[in-house]
# Entry
Amino acid sequence: MQVLGRLFNCINALLGLNTLKSLLRFWGFMLVLLPCITLMLIFTYYELQNTKRESAENLEQMITMQQDTIDKWFHERAAVIRDMANWPVLKAETEDIESIDARIRQFLQSQDEFSAVIYVNKAGVTVAAPFATPGIDISDRPYYQKAAQGQEYISDVLTARGAADGQPVVVFSAPVFDEHRQFKGLMLGAVKLATIDKIMKQFQFGHTGETYLINQQGLMITESRFIGQLVKNGVAKDNTRLSFPINGETLQVVSQGKTGTAAYTNYRGQEVIGAYRQLINRDWIIIGEVEKGEILESFYRQISIMLICFLVLMLATLPLTMVLEKRLATPIRRLIAGADAMRAGDYSYRVEQSLIDVSVSEIKTLCNVFNYMAENIRTKTETLNDANQALTVARDAALAASVAKSQFLANMSHEIRTPLNAILGMGELLGETPLTPEQEKYVRVSRSAGENLLNLINDILDLSKIELGHPTLNKNEFDLFIAVEETCQIILLQAQQKGIALHWHIKPETPSRLIGDPVRLQQVLINLLANAVKFTEAGEVTLEVSQRSQPEAGFVELLFVVRDTGIGIPQDKLGPIFERFTQVDASDTRKYGGTGLGLAIAKRLVELMEGRIWVESMLGVGSTFYFTVIVGQGNETTEAAHLSCTGFIACQQPTPEAIRQEPLNILLVEDSADNQLLIEAYLKKTPYKLDIADNGQIAVEKFMARQYDLVFMDMQMPVLDGYQATRTIRNWEQEQGRTRTPIIALTAYALQEDGIKTRDSGCDAHLTKPIKKRVLLDAIAHFARRNLM
Ligand code: ADP
# Structure
């Protein structure tokens, strides 16, 4: 089976049959051709054998019949002579030669077979021999000797000595007895061989079939049917039967046995099939033969008819293979075209029903299934498309709603912060006026509640932003060192206020150029650092950054550790603090403020950055927060990655005396009259000169007209907002070649990302409303000092 398969593949490869169409055409043709050829060969072989056998049998039958006829002929002629030997005229005591002669003459005249009849006397001398020479002694001849023994005799073919025409004859003899049964002589009759020719010619058949007799010497006794032709060709002389030898091959064949059939080349040099048989009691052989060509003529005719049929069949195969192809290959081609159309997204393609109807059952099923599938896919695709469209509409609506919600929250936050700024600021101012202890308490509670409210608003806004927006991380290249330093700068003011030292340390081998979302990373850090500062009364807060592992090429896992010497967290609260609205001790809220949302936000963000956050803590000793993130590795441009980086701000709480109060020119850009009033009040007892611009446009104009040492810039304002105003000022400074004037964003936008946005626009620091007097003064002192140095 395997060999057959390999042969099939080889033939296909050799003939380049690689399409179903060519395969079907070729093999369809071959399936007809091969059996036909095989059948034809078998038929031809058997038919040939059969024809030869039949011919040989026919020939055998014929020569058997002929033999009988010849035997009969011999018997009849012998009987004639025997009758003569019994003539009374011969039996008489005294021989009446004349009477005998007359009688013989009479006999000879009455027929023409016998060429001579002679009476031979006892002494073997011919006595009555009409038309022959009498008185010849023939006592030496076998027929005499046989007769003397009382036996009849038939000679071989003889050329009659006395015969006038020299025709070959067969001599018959019979003894003559007297009345006493004594040998008296014999009668001889020479029969012309031509009479046997007549018999032989009866058995000529077809146009090449003949029978003839040959004697022991291989000489042809009877006349060849083709004597004329032979004479004409110079092969034989007229009437040369006895000197015409049968060729060696024929002789060899026929002398092999008494009877038989054989194929051989005959005396005329023709291929023949012949049958031969020795005559009974004679040495002669009778041969019947016919040329092979004649025998095979009918066979060839049959074969020709068969070949024609075969060719017709072959031609008929062509349309047959075409029909087969239509039934098999065409639907398959249509199926392929259909599959192609489907791949191209066209599901409307179907195999035509007319084609399916004429296909074979398997392909019919295949086509029907294909059509069913295509229809199914088409309807399902349509349904899907409809659903997708509906989903897109719904998604767009949801997105729009979400944007609106975020916008609403941002606006709300801003709107709440602005009055809160005034409330808290005024509360602070109120606290500086002489108050009764009871009033002082009320003011403190009111301020604490205000601050809590502010934190709550910040955190809720942040969390809802994360949860609503399903935040995705940016993938920007950033510098870890800068990000850490910036973060620490943000915490700096709070640390300074509490007199806590802030260390940061980036371990050697930590890559500095990273790819990730620095804003989100800073947000987590700010949360942890702010908490650390918030829950630490004395001591220090440290931030340590190191590379923990390299999860895969191009990525690093960083470990951030924020350690403080604060109040610590009890063991049973270490887990829950990462959940929303969870605080260790509710009383903390009053003392430290906070919403219990910061760590929950941090956890979400860390997980978003494929990291983990956890805490170790000891009550009264301090807490250590750990978190990991996975970030991409950027292109290191300096050797910085291999160096460690340490920062340290040792902060003593600055006293008002410590601040060198210069008579600085300060520009406050603020559209809210309440806030303008608040800042004016904060700076009332300072040497600072405050100028106010109601919006960004006025601020830019003022800035260009006058020299300021410091600018407080609100961000959301009519006409020109703080971002644009800052950018315009920065550009103008650059054009004029002026040194940068510190611009501090003073805004109700409290989110970390807002801080980064303001810094991007050109601000040096970001203070959020409501602002405390101390923070405002510290900031002025800080930037003024920096500016003066
Ligand atoms: P918030 O600080 O606004 O209350 P957080 O989610 O940031 O909310 O913190 C939850 C609680 O975890 C805090 O209220 C506090 O009890 C505890 N906590 C957080 N950080 C520290 C820290 N560094 N030291 C002691 N307690 C902490």
